[in-house]
Structure formats: structure tokens, C-alpha cells
Design a protein that fits this description.
The chain is an alpha+beta fold. The chain contains eleven helices and twelve strands. It is globular. Strands 3, 4, 7, 8, 9, 11 and 12 form a seven-stranded mixed beta sheet that branches. The chain has a five-stranded mixed beta sheet with strand order 2-1-10-5-6. The protein binds the ligand Nc1nc2c(c(=O)[nH]1)N[C@H]1C(S)=C(S)[C@@H](COP(=O)(O)O)O[C@H]1N2 and molybdenum atom (MO).
Length: 334
């Protein structure tokens, strides 16, 4: 997001972590960078690729129904998965610091068990829910989605979780519930970014959706990725995934869900309202005031292979979600 320090834009552009990982991958596969390139041509590096893609075995394996690998399935994409190493080591989770590898380095301090979610506002069944009770009602399934950060990089991630709408309905929102707001945990002892004096965020991190957006079948609550429980740096134990919106909407480590009549305030919108809107729908034609949104770096990406691709309207999910915004001025409501 890089609000205060333009230098960070540069560091996110060169993806130091990926450069490092790619180098290691080539060296590991062949003993030299040059040979690695040659081997890539005959497909030999695929083995090394598979290795970095594997999540560690200390994350519990999950039981879930696998996504139907059909190109026409909106919950699936034929695009190459971003290797596990990038998904779990190149993160935005400011509660643990603003560096891309800070969440990987420091999120292990977070305790995720026990975990409770407070539900309040315009809802028939408010209360404090234990995570186990939420999980017991929501069978796990897999979704392979694109994730497009507002900083113009993207990934393809195999999530495990359940539809957001199904969970929200279990709380029985009233007819006055027009919006839903989410909050992340505040626990300064475990979240070193929350202790930082230079932090721009007024904790807790907050996000929100219009109810019809929240109820859309693509809207997802993730509890896992790559077939295992979700790593802490990716928002354990429960995080939102909104594939057609910029990544900052996909709030991590959720402890509160509030239903309201009015549009809630959200973290990034409060910090820089002219740069980050409430809707934050991915749109290649509406640039960020400080950079273009027309293209993105698809991870893995390196200095040598930037892997730059064109950004698509609603992150390629227009067919599914454009109807939510018919008649709306997408330049005004960015
Ligand atoms: N609580 C919280 N949630 C957050 C963020 C954050 O800093 N704090 N960063 C957001 C941003 S900007 C992005 S791009 C995604 C990144 O998700 P990932 O690290 O799992 O790829 O998380 C989002 N959710
Ligand atoms: Mo982001």
C-alpha cells in the first residue's frame, strides 16, 4: 500500500524475495544459473518448482472437496498456480510490519487457538462464536482464484474455505443489514506492527462490503491454502477472499463481523480516501493516483522475468460480478 514511503514502491517492484527464490531454484536444479536456464527449456525445472510449491507439513492437512478443474468453472482458473513459497513469503499484513517478508518472519508469534468471532449489529443471532462452531457448519471446499494487489502484483492461489454468504446467513442478518464490516484482531503483544510508532493504520484493520457483494457466490472465507491450514502470515485462522477486488479488501485474521444500515468506514479509505475507495474493484482503466493499474506482475516474477500481464476488469470475473455494479460510475466509485 506504501502510503508514506515511496521507496517501498520500488522495493515491491523488484520483488527481492522472488529473485532470491528463483535463483535458488535454478541453482538447486542444476548447479548453475546458466544451466538452469537451459534445463528450463526441456522442462526439467518443473521438479524443482514442485518442491518450492509444497507447504510445510507442520500445517495440518485439511479435508475438503476439490475444485472441479473445468475451464468454464468460475471458481477455477487454468492459469499456473503461484508457488507456495511466494504465496507464503511475499505478503501484506501490516500488523506484522510493512516489509513483504515481515509477515513470514513474525506472524509465528500469533496465537490462533482459541479463536472467537464477535457478531453484532443488524442481525437476529448476535453473539460471540467459537471458530469450531463456525467450522462445524461450513464444509470446506477448494477455490483457485486470482489475487490482485492494488500495488500491481498478483498471484493465483488455491484456497480452502467456504462461501462467505453461507456463513453470514447462519447469523440471520435483518432486512436492515445493507452492509457488513469485518475487523482484524488487535493484540499488540503478538503483532509487532501494531506496536510500531510509524504505523499509518488506526487499529483494528477494518474492511467492509455491500450485502449483495458479500452474498455473491465468489465471496469466500479462507481457512486454508494449498490443501493445508492457512499459514499465519496469510491471515490465520479465518480471512476474507474477494477475488474481483484489490487485495486490501481481503481482510485477515477476522475477529468481528458487524451488520449495518450504513456504509462502514474502512482502513485504507480512511488513510488515503483519494487513493483507496470503498469498492476497490480491480479496474485497469482507473489508475491509482501514483501508478498505472493497466498491468500487473504475476508472481513468480523476477528482474529477469518480470512476468507482466494485462490487468482485467474485475480481475477477470466481470461475467460473474458486473451485474452488481450496473449503472454505477466505476470512476467515481473506485
Ligand atoms: N488485517 C489485514 N488484512 C490484510 C492486509 C493487512 O495489512 N492487514 N493486507 C491486505 C492486502 S494489501 C493484500 S494484497 C492481501 C495480501 O494477502 P496475502 O498476503 O495472503 O497474499 O491481504 C490484505 N489483508
Ligand atoms: Mo494489497
Amino acid at each position: 500500500m506504501l502510503i508514506t514511503k515511496p521507496n517501498d514502491v520500488l522495493s515491491s517492484e523488484i520483488t527481492p524475495e522472488s529473485v532470491y527464490l528463483n535463483r535458488r531454484k535454478f541453482v538447486g536444479a542444476s548447479g548453475s544459473l546458466l544451466l538452469g536456464g537451459a534445463l528450463a527449456a526441456c522442462g526439467k525445472t518443473e521438479q524443482a518448482e514442485a518442491k518450492v510449491s509444497e507447504p510445510p507439513s507442520d500445517l495440518a492437512a485439511l479435508e475438503f472437496s476439490a475444485v472441479k478443474k473445468d475451464a468454464a468453472n468460475p471458481f477455477y482458473t487454468t492459469e499456473a498456480l503461484t508457488p507456495y513459497a511466494d504465496v507464503a513469503r511475499y505478503n501484506n499484513f501490516y500488523e506484522f510490519g510493512t516489509g513483504k517478508d515481515d509477515p513470514y518472519k513474525y506472524a509465528s508469534a500469533l496465537t490462533t487457538n482459541p479463536w472467537q468471532v464477535k457478531v453484532d449489529g443488524e442481525v437476529a443471532k448476535p453473539g460471540t462464536y467459537n471458530l469450531e462452531d463456525i467450522l462445524a457448519k461450513n464444509p470446506l471446499e477448494e477455490r483457485i482464484y486470482r489475487l490482485r494487489c492494488v500495488e500491481a502484483w498478483s498471484m493465483v492461489i488455491p484456497w480452502v474455505g467456504f462461501p462467505l454468504g453461507a456463513m453470514l446467513q447462519q447469523f440471520e442478518p435483518t432486512s436492515d443489514a445493507k452492509y457488513v464490516k469485518f475487523e482484524t484482531l488487535v493484540r499488540k503483544e503478538e503483532m509487532r506492527g501494531q506496536r510500531s510508532f510509524s504505523s499509518t493504520i488506526d487499529w483494528p484493520y477494518e474492511e467492509g462490503l455491500r450485502m449483495d457483494e458479500a452474498m455473491h457466490p465468489l465471496s469466500f472465507m479462507a481457512t486454508g491454502l494449498y490443501g493445508r491450514e492457512i499459514p499465519k502470515q496469510n491471515g490465520a485462522p479465518l480471512r476474507l477472499v474477494m477475488p474481483w477486488k484489490y487485495g486490501f479488501k481481503s481482510i485477515k485474521s477476522i475477529v468481528r463481523i458487524s451488520f449495518s444500515k450504513r456504509q462502514p468506514a474502512t482502513s485504507w479509505q480512511q488513510i488515503a480516501p483519494h487513493e483507496y475507495g470503498f469498492y476497490a474493484n480491480v479496474n485497469p482503466e482507473v489508475d491509482h493516483p501514483r501508478w498505472s493499474q493497466a498491468s500487473e506482475r504475476r508472481l513468480p516474477s523476477s528482474l529477469f522475468e518480470p512476468n507482466r500481464i494485462e490487468t482485467r476488469l474485475f480481475n477477470g470475473y466481470a461475467e460473474q460480478v458486473a451485474g452488481l455494479y450496473s449503472g454505477m460510475n466505476l470512476v467515481r466509485y473506485y
